[in-house]
C-alpha cells in the first residue's frame, strides 16, 4: 500500500488541541493521541529552543495526497519549523487488516490502492494494533497462538471515533490502547488474521491492525531462535 502512511507528530503538550483542530480542518478524521516526555538534556533543549520536555504524540493514517496538504499546512499555519514547536514524519504502511478498517482510518478518501509496500531483504515487520482499552491480553493471546513474541502497550485517546458507526457499523470508545509487536515477515499474515478473528471488530476489543516495514533490527536474535525452535518442534511432532 504505497499510497498509505502512518503520520506521526511529536509536539509540545500545550498545543495538542490546536493540532487536533488543524488535522480536522485538513481532512484527517481519525487521530490517536498519547502523552510522552522528552529525554534531551538541558544543553540540547536550549540549542533547539525547547522550553520543556512534556510532549504529545499524534498518530494518524494518511494518503500521500493528504500528507502533501498537511505538510504545507504544518509549515505555514502551525509553524512546525519554528524551533520548539515539534516534528512530523511519515512511514509507509506495509498492509492493513480489512477494508472496513481502511475506510475508517482514511475517512473513505479515494485513492489508488497499490501493491503491499515491500523493502528489499527485510525480515521483520511492526504490527500496530489499536483497540479498546482493557483487551491487551486477548490480543496478545491471539498473536501468541501464531508464535508472536512480546508486545509494547501505550495508552492513547482517539479522536474522530464518531465516524466508526458509518464505516465500521460499530461504536468505538475514545480510550484506546496501541500495541506494538515486531514479528517475522513470513508470520505477519497469520498473526494479523488471528488477531482479527479473536479480537477484531466483531469482538469487544474492536481492534484495528496494520503493519509497518522494518528495515533493520537489533536484539531480535532470541525471537528468531524461538521461532526456529518452535518450527523444529512442530516438524518433529508430525513425523
List the helices and strands and how they pair.
Elements: E1 4-12, H1 16-25, E2 31-37, H2 42-48, E3 54-63, H3 64-76, E4 86-92, E5 95-96, H4 99-106, E6 124-132, H5 136-144, E7 152-159, H6 164-167, E8 175-184, H7 188-199, E9 208-214, H8 221-238
Helix pairs in contact: 5-7
Describe what you observe in this structure.
The chain has 239 residues and is an alpha+beta fold. It has 2 domains: 4-92, Alpha-Beta Plaits; 96-238, Alpha-Beta Plaits, CATH 3.30.70.120. Helices cover 34% and strands 29% of the residues. It contains 8 helices and 9 strands. The chain has helices at residues 16-25, 42-48, 64-76, 99-106, 136-144, 164-167, 188-199, 221-238, and strands spanning 4-12, 31-37, 54-63, 86-92, 95-96, 124-132, 152-159, 175-184, 208-214. It has a 9-stranded antiparallel beta sheet with strand order 4-1-3-2-7-8-6-9-5.
